[in-house]
Sequence to fold (294 residues):
Amino acid sequence: MSAATTHGKTPYYFVPAPSHFPVQASFGLLLVIFGAGQWINGHGWAMWVLLAGFAIWAFVLQGWFRTAIGESESGLYSDRIDVSFRWSMSWFIFSEVMFFGAFFGALYWTRLHALPNLGSLENAVLWPDFRAIWPSSGAGMTGSPANIVDPFTTMGPWPIPTINTLLLLTSGVTLTIAHHALVAGHRAKTIFWMWCTVLLGVTFLGFQIYEYHHAYTELNLKLSSGAYGSTFFMLTGFHGFHVFVGMLMLLFITIRLMKGHFTPQRHFGFEGAAWYWHFVDVVWLGLYIVVYWL
Fold:
């Protein structure tokens, strides 16, 4: 607690005391990045460094969030803090928009610019065996005239991607119902619909795990399957990770609701998680059309 805070009174603007959490979280992320980089380059020991980084990071974040929740429930956060949280969450979601925009942009550039240019007459002298066909689903196709990409089958929209689309759209509806119930002061109804939303998120992840297993074992579709495979797994994989994070957000918000946190007037923790979940829904709609249909 800040030394400038008077006990029992909401400060004009709460300033927390110096904290060790930022340094510890940064150290955990350093291990994650270092371990992931070394693991990709074939060092088996790096997997344990990666897992250790995730463990440290998760431990630090739960302590950090627990502290922030305690400060909020103690009445230390004024309306100015509420506004700063809203701006912070807005900029965070904007950064996520740019993150996914980069991957959608890579897919767009590959299909509509790089592929036609490489298959043009100008490049025929440099790469005479190249065929500008999307996707590169067979040996010798597109970016693999030297047969370095094994034949694979592309992933269509039926049935799992369509089922997952329905699941996420339904979860957006249940989350909105829960929000309206919270504003109306119906806590039990809010908790029920929040659990429904969490369950829908878990079901989505279960279907995606099955889809990945099906892709690797039956379709021979892998991260190394040319530009198609890399963009497919990067887009769907990162989105799946965001669904997992959003599901955890909603789970912890639901637990807080069961503990009596939030009021119809003050519940930005709920709203912030809801913003993130709706963002994940919108990204999936774009991904569903661009990756599975087009």
Q: What stands out?
A: The helical segments are 21-40, 46-73, 79-118, 160-183, 187-217, 226-258, 268-293. The longest helix spans residues 79-118. The radius of gyration is 23 Å. The chain has two domains: 18-76, 79-293.
